[in-house]
Amino acid sequence: MPIVKLRAAQPGERTSPGGKPVRNKLLLALGDEEFQSLRPYLEFVNLPHHMSLHQPHRTVKFAHFPNEGLISLVVELKDGKSVEAGLLGKDGAAGMPAVMGLSRSPLREVVQITGNGFRVKISTMREILQSSPQIHVILGRYAAGLAMQVAQTAACNRLHKIEERLARWLLIAQDRLESGTVNITHDFLATMLGTDRPSVTLAAGVLQEEEMIVYMRGSVKILNRKKLEQFACECYAVISQYNSGA
Question: Residue 125: is its pLDDT beyond 90?
Fold first, then answer.
């Protein structure tokens, strides 16, 4: 498993019991008292590319709070086809259905861009929620926003053009990575968008011709974010609104 190094924690920063800096925005949003109630159970983990955090229809064992990287929520069908239903990074957490009371989930949770973060046992999370109303409110609000992202993404994948969907995906990914470059391949994007590689190549070509992005081997660099936002379908604005807690 690859090792991902974090810079040393600065005075006053939140850390795990092992001294790893906390970058996850949900954990940072907690009040000091409630963060301290959760802190002893934060286990630092590396999140390598393609690591499955949860297999469909199996019991969810951990909630994961990324510091870095991207995690996809993927719907997999019996014929082997799959499509992304949601995307999260250090803005959120994986394993939310189990945290909120469901023992299983039909979604596969898979790391799409390497990162790191913390995990907490689901049983521990449920115990803490019973006596920590602020954690319950913050995670409940996030889970509701994530559910809306899943619903909006389903409509987007069914009704909008591939180049608009690609623009939407790149914007969401950049928001969560906070980087101008997204390390992805056309094959990966095809799976996430529920289409084929040639269609993604054509769509990326449209965005590149309009000088919104430049595609390099294995990565996409966003050149003109404002133009990309104008080009994307309305789904990006809707998802951003509800994921921001508005």
Answer: yes
